[in-house]
Amino acid sequence: MTTATLDRRAVRPGFIDALRAERIKLLSVRSTWWTLLALVVIGVGGTILICAPNAEWLSEPGADEAPGSFITGGIVFAQIFAVVLGTLAVTGEYGTGMIRATLAATPTRGRVMAAKLVVIASTLFVVGTVTALLSYYAGNYFFEKAGIGMALEGDVARSIYGSGLFLAGSGLFAAAVGFILRHTAATMSIVLALMLVVTNLVLLIPGDTGRWITKLMPANAGSVVSTPVPFNPTLLDAWTGFGVFAAEVGALVLLAWLVLRRRDA
User: Fold this and answer.
1) pLDDT digits over 208-223, tens only?
2) I want to staple 228 with a disulfide (CB 3.0 to 4.6 A). Which of 68, 78, 139, 140 is the partner?
């Protein structure tokens, strides 16, 4: 009896095993690759569509916007696909019932959740950073032709890996909501509405209250790090905003963990 118990403990999967399993699950389905491809294409294509027609106008002395506000402009569109990936990575298992097998193989639920979040975040950080870099070169091509090219240094360089951080955080935000709701359509609808619709609606709130709510909205706080110069100059500084965004994501992940611990699969 003792030997059997020790044998079972010996083969209990650890965090590295859970990490490997989550990596295989994420990268072995077509939806992941289609979503990542769409993220890159839309992110780079969106930047081109923003930079190409505005380059000449931005080069004029009277232009009231900085070229840095446009150079990674496509990341706002790429954010949609980061949310999609984070959602599907979680709710897909609940939809098929595979989550029961996952939790049976790795009974420590926090380990499963942590492994899944690490895989989502690392994948989106790498792909998001590459997308931002490609966006920079694509957009800067038009800026250089107009005589306003931007060097890949300082805030421009920060915006490249900052875009990866922002997309990784967006994926984690969606994944946490997915653990709470366990439903694909509901998760995508709520997260995208919060980040793309509610973020703009709070601008209608008057006074200091409206200004502070606008600054603290997840999409606003997190996106500042992904651009050299934000369109809205009243937003938080890049790293302050990202710190707020990270705290919001962390709080949501903690709530998701508490829900996962206490609820049946």
Assistant:
1) 888 999 999 999 999 9
2) 68
